[in-house]
Amino acid sequence: MQRPTHAAVVWWDDAWDSHGSATPKSDGPYPRVSSGLLIQDDEKGVCLAGTYDPPDKSIDGRTFIPRAVVQRLLRYKIQWGKK
Fold first, then answer.
1. CA–CA separation, 4 vs 38, rounded Å?
2. What does the pLDDT look like over 51-77, one tens digit per residue?
3. What H or E segment, with its residue span, contains residue 45?
């Protein structure tokens, strides 16, 4: 895997309960904001590594967000130092 060239912040609508239960939310999508190293950004969706989730105060190894639920994405160029 190549070194990521961007970090990103993604605003998206989560259709699942955020507290570990695998059941769809009956009251509609739950707005989320996730940030991390941008691994994938294509027609399928967005994949972030090392994501931080402010509402849950959790850090995940990798998060995939389907394109259909992405509301907004901001990219930030990473300026890696010399080796």
1. 6
2. 666 666 666 788 899 999 999 999 999
3. strand 45-53
CA distances from 22 to 4, 26, 27, 49, 67 (A): 31, 12, 15, 22, 20
Full-prediction pTM beyond 0.85?
no
Structure tokens at 82: 């010399």
- Burial track 28-66 (b if 16+ CB lie within 10 A, e otherwise): eeeebebbbbbbebeeebbbbbebbbeeeeeeeeebebe
- Under a CB-based contact definition with an 8 Å cutoff, are residues 34 and 18 in contact? no
The reported pLDDT for the residue numbered 23 is 57
The contacts of residue 3 (CB under 8 Å, 6+ apart) are 80
